[in-house]
Sequence to fold (668 residues):
Amino acid sequence: MNEVIKSILSAQFFYSVLRVTTPVLFAALGALLSDVAGVINIALEGLMLMSAFWGVMVSAWTGSAWIGLLAGVTSAVLLSLALAYFHLNLKTDLILAGIALNMFASGSTVFLLYLFSGDKGSSSSVKSYVLPNVDIPGIKNIPILGDILSGHHVLTYIAFLSVFVVQYLIYKTPLGLRMRAVGENPNAAQSVGISVKRIKYTSLVLSGLMAGLGGAFLSMGYVSWFARDMTNGRGFIGLAAQALGGKSAYGSMWGALLFGAAEATSYTLQAIRIPSEFTNMLPFIFTIIALIIYARAKIMQIKKIREKQTSHEEVGL
Amino acid sequence: MRRDRIIFETVRTTLTILIALLIGYVILLFATDKANEAFKWFLLGPLSTKRRIVELLNRTTPLIFTGLAVSVVFQAEIFNIGAEGQLFFGAVAATFAALYFPHIKFLQIILVMLFAMAAGGAWAAVPAYMKAKWNASELVSSLMMNYVAFFFGLYLVNYHMRDVNAGALVSYRFPRTAWLPRMLRRYNLHPGILIAIGFALLVWFFLYRTKYGYELRMVGKNKEFARFSGIKVENVVIYSQIISGMIAGLAGAIELMGLYKRFVWQMTPGYGFDGIIVALLARNNPLMVIPAALFISYLRTGSYVMGRMTGIAPEIVVMLQAIMILLITAEAFLAFWKRRMIEKSAMSREE
Fold:
């Protein structure tokens, strides 16, 4: 047990927390961007998977990791547009459409993987490229802090920068204001001349962009290959992380970090021979417990407000 | 009016299926130069030999169960999509019961089934309770429970029930007292499909002929109205999900006792998510679940036959299922035609 505590307090552990948080953070920001406009994006899981696949394939074909990234993100955005089209134009139930797109991503990536590489499990036979890690000058040389913060994958930095960008976008720009208006009350937004459909399209595209970056990180950084269903629930965890964080990007970030910590802990536990099947389920159990705590807190809050209201009324009488 | 709706839904479903098949054909054209041959195996493969017909029927069984499980919660307008995990955990429980419960002929089969149902029901009860008590989204929690079921189940099987001499990651073989009997001498057709059809009738009776079923449907139609008319909505939210979980858990037990005689999955088999498309095709009607499951099983079997004969990945069928879900639930798809039909019938009534 001492060993576990020691390794959890090491710089290496915090480094790995940031690393495993990255894809979940992208997914959580994606969930946030659609949620503020009142759209639940269940398809995040599939969008990430799509991007992870095309990132690997296109980088192998072109020999450039950056073009791979672009292709991956584009594929996720296109699939997100498909979700928007089905939901907003063809009036498909949002959740079922999301489930369908997850199925589509899972099926099509395996189908195409087999077609392109002759392997159904992973793309290990395909020579693909990964995006670089980046050292931050200055911070790099600070003893412990440097070990934690420097030398991360470029998308890890983009993920944490995106937190501020997304927060700014939602709360300080006209587009963000419109997105929130549509999410809050679509009819009111419509009545002041905002095109609800267009705003929802925009927010789903932005959401797809985030999911695309998260997916590309998985196959072009976290590991250097694509494996079938490699997202492994991270899109859903991102959704839960955002639910815990409410409508703020900072909240989503803390939510994502919570799961990052749970996942990093599970790897530490594996090192002391606790079965991986057992540790793998920890982040999910963690999510469920967090959901319960969050839902309970929310109910208490509502109760309190109601009590206050009734006591005010009594005073008024 | 009712007849119009049935005609409309039938046409829409048929058209959806045709469009999906067409897209499948186009994908094959891009994927292989033997597209015609591959497509022929896909469409006719399931009926080409007796063995494949048996395969088709056996594969229908879990799909009827998961289709029923999903129908029950969907009728209550609850998005518990945890059938996958409930089935998986039910199968793990069944493995435990098959190995460690007393090996008594016939009785053990019943006990294994009951134990698997209890496990599936318990698994579904977690998101159900969270929803009823704290209003936590059953969608996210049931998804999380799928992953927990998968990893926890694998842990139990791989560390406590694994047959180290088997050469693969599988459990010990079940005792013969926990095998479902064969219905044919030469082929392994197990009676699961009969049990599944029996359950379809049972679920239909429950939904349309009992008070609890009526309450469940009312909650699905209009929650607030149901509450005001004295239905305890929270109870309905809980028991509908538990019933659904029990059915899914039973599917896991029957699959193992009928087909494999041991626990064999290192990946989740996907029947839970297939149950969603079955329920959608059947419009959540338990009796229609039977043909819908047969149809999806036909597509699946066709894709496997195609895969074996031509080397095309059978996962293509997963894409087609996704397209079908999108089109069937797209309300605006063919809406213009529906409107015209309503107008026409209104006009004829006026005359």
The radius of gyration of chain A is 21 Å.
